[in-house]
Amino acid sequence: MTPDAGRRPARASRTEDAGPSAGASVAVPRGSSGGQDATTGCSVHPGLDRLVGVMDRLRSPGGCPWDAEQTHESLLPYAVEEVYEVVEAVEAGDRAGMREELGDLLLQVVFHARIAQEHPDDPFDVDDVAADVAAKLRRRHPHVFGETAERAETAETAEARTGSAAGEGALDAEAVHRRWDVLKQSEKARASVVDGIPPALPALARAQKVLGRVRRAGLGVELPPDADSLGRRLLALVDEAQRVGVDAESALRGAVHDLESAVRRAEAG
């Protein structure tokens, strides 16, 4: 893939871009296997294995010059773009688009992991990334996997968990979310419930994050009192949306979409 002058560089984030490499014999890096079926010995995630192998080929000598020169920093705009494209496909109810855009987003993960694998001092690969997030999910779901996150769930514990779900001690989704916040704050030794919220988040999304954590923590924090401040009024609207279970970001995006449609109708006469 060679970027055209004056155009966005061609990417390895579309399945058709990987076509020539996809059929080639590739050396799959350590950690790329998705596991094997106990009976057949075949990979249970052949598509993932193939994707990791294609990326390895693209980054290896004799691969793609554009892919080979990318860094974590240079890929950031593409990662952000792919997230928004997933949002667009989901909100449009476009199943084919969701499949494609989720693949593009997955490629960003695989791409970053492949670059990380080449680090001279602190390498990690896609299998390390997957193992870490799997371990995190087990730690953050003790109501599912038990208090000892590392043990495998047996049929007996699964049955006990299923049986207790109907009992008085069952956790609802809100309680699970609160527990997640507490476990996360403890794991990362954070002093405040609002620590760790990315400062680069758009203001509306950041407001939702902050208000959500404050509410789940049960903190009686009042909104800033300056009623004449536009920012204060916007924050109050986000708070109002959360209280009635509305995602403010999605609501505003929908309203803007309706406005755009009205503009196009007016332009068409």
Automatic annotation (TrEMBL):
One of its GO terms (biological process) is dATP catabolic process. Coiled coil: none annotated. Keywords: Hydrolase. Residues 155-166 have a biased composition (Low complexity). Residues 70-145 form the NTP pyrophosphohydrolase MazG-like domain. It holds the Pfam family MazG. SUPFAM superfamilies: all-alpha NTP pyrophosphatases. One of its GO terms (molecular function) is nucleoside triphosphate diphosphatase activity. Signal peptide: none annotated. Residues 1-43, 146-166 are annotated as: Disordered. This is Nucleoside triphosphate hydrolase. It comes from Cellulomonas carbonis T26. The lineage of its organism: Bacteria, Bacillati, Actinomycetota, Actinomycetes, Micrococcales.
